[in-house]
Amino acid sequence: MSEFPRILPFGDRALVVEFEDVLSPEVNARVRALALRLDALPGVVETVPTFRSLLVVIDPAVSSQAIADDALRLAGTTTATAAGATRTVEVPVVYGGEYGPDLPDVAAATGLTAEEVVRIHSGREYLVYMLGFAPGFPYIGPLDQRLRVPRLDSPRVRVPAGSVAVADVLTAIYPLQTPGGWRLIGRTPLRTYDPTDADPFFFHPGDRVRFVPVEDAAFSVGALDHPRPIHAGRHPVFEVLEPGLYSTLQDAGRPGFRSRGLPASGAMDPLALQIANAVVGNPQGAAALEVTAPGPVLRALETATVAVAGADLSATIDGTAIEPAVPVAIRPGQTMRFGFPRRGVWAYVAVAGGIRVPMVLGSASTYVPGGIGGMGGRRLIAGDILGRGEGETGSAALTTPSLVLPVKEVTIRCVLGPQADWFTADAGETLRTAAYRVTVRSDRAGIRLEGPGLQHRGRADILSDGMLPGAIQVPGGGQPIVIMPDGPTTGGYPKIGVVVSADLRLLAQAQPGTRIRFVETTVEEAHSHDDAAR
Q: Taken in order 293, 296, 300, 304, is the CA torsion positive or negative?
């Protein structure tokens, strides 16, 4: 058994500092204290404290070994008392009835009355161990042993925002409407996640929580089921006639909030975004329209210079094909359409001057599950008006990098770990030699693969720890899921490896049915290859 704390690899731009494999307030306090110390180190982009481990995201220009050495040294001398000051918050809860439909079942399963469940649940002070799963979702505990019940066998499709729930040794509050498998015993009117607020997150890791029973409360209605079109920007450039399957505004992403449960989002293919922007003279990370098939129908409202890069989705203007990565003038009344997807999955429409929407937490990227960024935190709808900036923001690139798109098969490099030792030796060999296929269930949160199962040595779950795009999670069924830009910031399945950052775009552009072959590499090889490419 390895000694703790220990350093685990996490792809080519992160590492994990792992403490004892226990759910303990003392261990969690050491994790949070270490996060404070590492956040101050040059080269550390951000940290994600979890129950008993710390994900450390590293600037690729900095030596990961140096960061690992510093992290291990500091972890060995960090105490729980260094976690800093905490605050205590009171959470009003209406227990039972329509707000807590599982309260009777929890009472029956524990041999208690509903009143006793409420008294026990509200009778102690809890710790917010971490945030994850969804923006602002607090994992709170430890729960009194008398209230410990398993999750639902079949998760609900919709759990209302504010629902107070229990599962196993924890309790939690759903910050927004999401699917969920925890047992609902009440609801709070407290808004714990508000994407319109300057600081959308109510809870912080380390907060102390007390639940206070109340008889009644006023609950917010939540998001509209039928959103209205939005007019964005001073210079309207496109009217959305048809929105397409999944059209959103994306830029370079929104880093820095993973510790609060909010992924960075951003383009599925960052290189394609950069190319589209470069050929119209925009900065590389300017906001552009990300589309997939079937694509949107856009009518030009003024003369503008546009470019399309990434997937070949048969883009046309008034029936004339648009060459990829070439600046094109579009005039008022002309219509841009997309047709059959010849190669790739995600294409980017850049407009000279950039597509302008209000920045949220420093980014225009849309994260639809969290209702944040872009056009009101949602996909495009018919009637939306997209506006551009004041004009061209730079000189168009004379040459652009070549853009590889996968066809029938693609090789993806990965670094083994951080939980490779949770799998059998045969599983590691299978990952390196077998072919997997991209399934139609893939999306911006994760690429789901099917192929030979990857067998765990024992159980198929861990104490949830931090995640980044590229993590190869393997649930109990043995089929790998590669986390993508909208994927969760923490997860409870072992990760057999992490896809190298530069190769993640190839996976994103692989159409359903494409064969995926993984090849093992090291952090050093991944960095040297990327340096050579530059």
A: negative
Sheet holding 14-18, edge to edge: 6-9, 14-18, 53-58, 44-49
Burial of 339 (0-12, 13-18, 19+ CB in 10 A): middle
Buried b (16+ CB within 10 A) or exposed e, 129-168: bbbbbbbbbbbbbbbbeebbbeebeeebeebbbbbbbbbe
HSE, side-chain direction, 13 A CA sphere, residue 298: 32
Q: What are phi and psi of 285, to 5 degrees?
A: -95, 15
Assigned token pair, 6: 């220990």
How far is Cα 93 from Cα 146, in angstroms, rounded to an integer?
20
Residue 200: asked if its preceding bond is cis (omega within 30°), the reply is no
d(CA 456, CA 515): 23
User: How far apart, in Å, do the first and last CA atoms of the chain sit?
Assistant: 41
Distance CA 249, CA 251 (A): 7
How does pLDDT run across 65-88, given as a tens digit for each residue? 999 999 999 999 999 887 877 899
Distance of CA 430 to the CA centre of its chain: 27
Token pair of 200, please?
Answer: 């959308």
- pTM for the complete prediction? 0.94
